[in-house]
Amino acid sequence: MEPQLQQNQQQPNEDSSGCGKGSFLCRQSSSRWTPTTHQIRILKDLYYNNGVRSPSADQIQRISAGLRQYGKIEGKNVFYWFQNHKARERQKKRFTTTNHVPMQRPANGGWKADSIHNNKYPNINPGYSPSSPSTGVLTVGQIGNYGYESITMEKSFRFQLYIYSFLTLNYCDQDCSISACGSSTGANESLSHNFGWVGIDPAYSSSYTFFDQKKFIDGILEEEH
Amino acid sequence: MEPQLQQNQQQPNEDSSGCGKGSFLCRQSSSRWTPTTHQIRILKDLYYNNGVRSPSADQIQRISAGLRQYGKIEGKNVFYWFQNHKARERQKKRFTTTNHVPMQRPANGGWKADSIHNNKYPNINPGYSPSSPSTGVLTVGQIGNYGYESITMEKSFRFQLYIYSFLTLNYCDQDCSISACGSSTGANESLSHNFGWVGIDPAYSSSYTFFDQKKFIDGILEEEH
DNA sequence: ACGATATGAATGAATG
DNA sequence: CATTCATTCATATCGT
């Protein structure tokens, strides 16, 4: 599904001057991050094939550092990317699922779950059980190292935002080296891959044959308890 | 993967012309939802006469379920419809209502944030020091501008934090060398495949790959000390 | 056939 | 985390 693959191909590295397209005045170059396909590819790989959902400040730092070779990118971009990706994956599920029957596999019918930028990862699921990846709790642990007050464990993501915002300041000096000795790669759930907004099982819709708009609307507006 | 680019002209909305709910042949395989007039009518009714602006996930489900009798529709369509309708209404208003003052900013010249964020996160200081934090206060004064856009920094206090990182070193010749230690892990080898480098971003295919993605990812996933 | 416009879809960035 | 906002991309539709 990539009817639209063009665009987005933006060159890494803002050749500043920018000014975008036909704009007359040099309207401040795009103010927002435009991920390159490579960056997207890697982010998705981390997300889908490695179970990364809510990377820790430290991970965010490393990810952005690594992705920087493919184009301008900051920690917050990585942070937001995961934040959004996860949120949307849920949202679409929510729109279509609710407390009804689970309905087996939505067969990717809408959200381009992952299409546009490319993707299509081989859902390789390493045969080993991961402890339990980062989902859920944010690991803001070692903040202390930076001496930036450790309002530690303020698990608010907002706080984390701050944290890595700082880390960003220093990452350069660290030589950006990434050692890959670890082994705790947690790769679970790689099957959360595609599912769209679908789920419009025709079976559900039939009941409205006698549609009373008024009642319908009232139903919609009905308080949500 | 390759899209269902079928251009098959759909049963253009215009209600009823046979495609309504009655006809099964109406296969409209257009890539995007084309609301029927009935659907639009109801959506607008909800919007204008019932004040629905940002329906909840639950409402979205009910709305799409109800509108389904008038034609194919999914939750996301409803979601986007309201989203867009509201945004465009707002946008339109913005253009017509805009007073003649060029910038409509918080009037007081900025973000009251300064105090706010300082009080709340007192320790936030653009520090500069890789491993040894604290101390180094680094004058962030005239650093900045590495060619990055200046991004109006009045958005929110939260965002302001990033400003710091902007000002500071954000530019480092990243040599991101990645030392690979472990070799085993054999966990994920998802991205290692070269599948992607192909058509996507040809410009950057090989030459810039001094970067081993697998190691990179392992590094990211690496346990945090 | 175009070019402009309306609008569906997507997504980065925030906010609550 | 759920939601919302702002922008931008993509395409359907319509006028000339």
Account of the 3D structure:
Chain A has 225 residues and is mostly helical. Chain A has a domain of 52 residues. In chain A, 33% of the residues lie in helices and 0% in strands. In chain A, helix 2 crosses helix 3. The longest helix of chain A has 22 residues. Chain A is elongated and about 60 Å long. Chain A starts with 36 loop residues before the first helix and ends with a helix. Chains A and B meet through helix 1, helix 2, helix 3, helix 4 and helix 6 of A and helix 1, helix 2, helix 3, helix 5 and helix 6 of B. Chains A, B: Belongs to the WUS homeobox family. Chains A, B: GO terms for molecular function: DNA binding; DNA-binding transcription factor activity. Chains A, B: Keywords: Developmental protein, DNA-binding, Homeobox, Nucleus, Transcription, Transcription regulation. Chains A, B: One of its GO terms (cellular component) is nucleus. Chains A, B: This is Protein WUSCHEL-like.
Write the layout of secondary structure elements.
Two copies of one chain form a homodimer.
Chain A: H1 37-50, H2 57-67, H3 75-96, H4 157-170, H5 202-205, H6 213-221
The first copy, chain A, binds a DNA duplex (16 and 16 nucleotides) through α3.
Order of SSEs of chain A: HHHHHH
What fraction strand of chain A? under 5%
Mean pLDDT of chain A comes to 57
Largest interface: A-B, 106 and 102 residues
The tally of helices of chain A reads: 6
What structural class do helix, strand and pairing data of chain A support? mainly alpha
- State the helicity of chain A in percent bands: 25-40%
Oligomer: homodimer
How many strands, what sense, and barrel or not for the largest sheet of chain A? none
Q: Can you count the beta strands of chain A?
A: 0
What is the overall silhouette of chain A?
elongated
Q: Rounded to an integer, what's the Rg of chain A over CA atoms?
A: 21 Å
Distance between the termini of chain A: 40 Å
Can you tell me the residue ranges of chain A where pLDDT is under 50 for at least 5 consecutive residues? 1-28, 103-110, 113-196, 198-209
